[in-house]
TrEMBL record:
Pfam families: THF_DHG_CYH (PF00763), THF_DHG_CYH_C (PF02882). The gene is folD. Catalyzes the oxidation of 5,10-methylenetetrahydrofolate to 5,10-methenyltetrahydrofolate and then the hydrolysis of 5,10-methenyltetrahydrofolate to 10-formyltetrahydrofolate. It comes from Rossellomorea marisflavi. Keywords: Amino-acid biosynthesis, Histidine biosynthesis, Hydrolase, Methionine biosynthesis, Multifunctional enzyme, NADP, One-carbon metabolism, Oxidoreductase, Purine biosynthesis. This is Bifunctional protein FolD. It catalyses: (6R)-5,10-methylene-5,6,7,8-tetrahydrofolate + NADP(+) = (6R)-5,10-methenyltetrahydrofolate + NADPH; (6R)-5,10-methenyltetrahydrofolate + H2O = (6R)-10-formyltetrahydrofolate + H(+). The lineage of its organism: Bacteria, Bacillati, Bacillota, Bacilli, Bacillales. One of its GO terms (biological process) is tetrahydrofolate interconversion. Residues 138-279 form the Tetrahydrofolate dehydrogenase/cyclohydrolase NAD(P)-binding domain.
């Protein structure tokens, strides 16, 4: 069997080209989409990811501003967010996670106005997603859904198995696909006989955060394998949950790491920011 690789970078670039045009049209009408990014501490991975987000904003013409605290308390962050909520020049607010242990992320994320919650993590956004109402969708699940749509992969009636139940990927992705009439099985670290379930999947999505976790014995022939893991391999390089070389020839389709979900996730951040700006136009 020939395994097809989804080029997330190529799809992302197509989206960004369209977003750049939309941003240009907004600017002609006097609207410059603006994104505020809040970063606390010096986590190397977070700083690297924020730099990618800033560059992506610049590439499509979105104004971005970074509010970087070496240290901060919850009250400082909520005060800043209140100011950004009231700013007419800011259309999206992104709190870079994880936050330091002394800060409750629920309180900080809950302070973001739902109208500017481009990460889709406010309780109101989560509730609206759960009830299939219009809202901002979290960026990584939205990236996965749009990549499947780009590849003309039907969702309705398919058995989708998701490994992971995080608030960032697993839970919202399961809800999104259920809203699109997939049959969803949600797995996690306490799931018994996990691979007996993954082998039933028409579409297997792994967000386990474990390098080398999924090999050919974990999938059925012809399955579509979406690798949403982001890990460091033994050589220090970035790798996903899936052993790509091992599933080649058995999977019908696979997303690579890097170059799969990652670029599209940042692009969905841009998309949500532009969407917010257009709502306020």
């Amino acid at each position: 069997m020939s395994t097809r690789i989804i080029d997330g970078t190529k799809i992302s670039n197509e989206w960004r080209s369209e977003l750049k045009t939309r941003v240009g049209n907004l600017k002609q009408s006097g609207i410059i989409p603006g994104l505020a990014i809040i970063l606390v501490g010096d986590n190397p991975a977070s700083r690297s990811y924020v730099r990618l987000k800033e560059k992506a904003c610049a590439d499509v013409g979105i104004h971005s501003e970074l509010h970087h605290y070496q240290s901060a308390d919850e009250e400082q962050l909520v005060t800043l967010i209140d100011q950004l909520n009231d700013s007419a020049h800011i259309h999206g607010i992104l709190v870079q996670l994880p936050l330091p242990g002394h800060i409750d992320p629920a309180n900080v994320l809950g302070a973001v106005s739902p109208t500017k919650d481009i990460d889709g993590l406010h309780p109101l956004s989560i509730g609206r997603l759960a009830t299939a109402q219009e809202t901002f969708h979290p960026c990584a699940p939205l990236a996965i859904a749009n990549m499947l749509q780009h590849e003309n992969i039907p969702i309705a009636g398919r058995h989708v198995v998701i490994i992971g139940k995080s608030n960032l990927i697993g839970k919202p992705l399961g809800t999104m696909l259920l809203n699109r009439n997939a049959t969803v099985t949600q797995c996690h670290s306490d799931t018994e006989d996990l691979f007996s379930l993954t082998r039933q999947a028409d579409i297997l999505i792994s967000a386990a955060g474990k390098a080398g976790f999924i090999g050919r014995e974990a999938i059925k022939s012809g399955a579509l394998v979406i690798d949403a893991g982001m890990n460091r391999g033994e050589d220090g390089g970035v790798c996903g949950d899936v052993i790509a070389d091992d599933v080649m020839g058995r999977a019908g389709l696979i997303t690579p790491v890097p170059g799969g979900i990652g670029p599209m996730t940042i692009t969905m951040m841009l998309h949500n920011t532009v969407k917010s700006a257009m709502r306020m136009f």
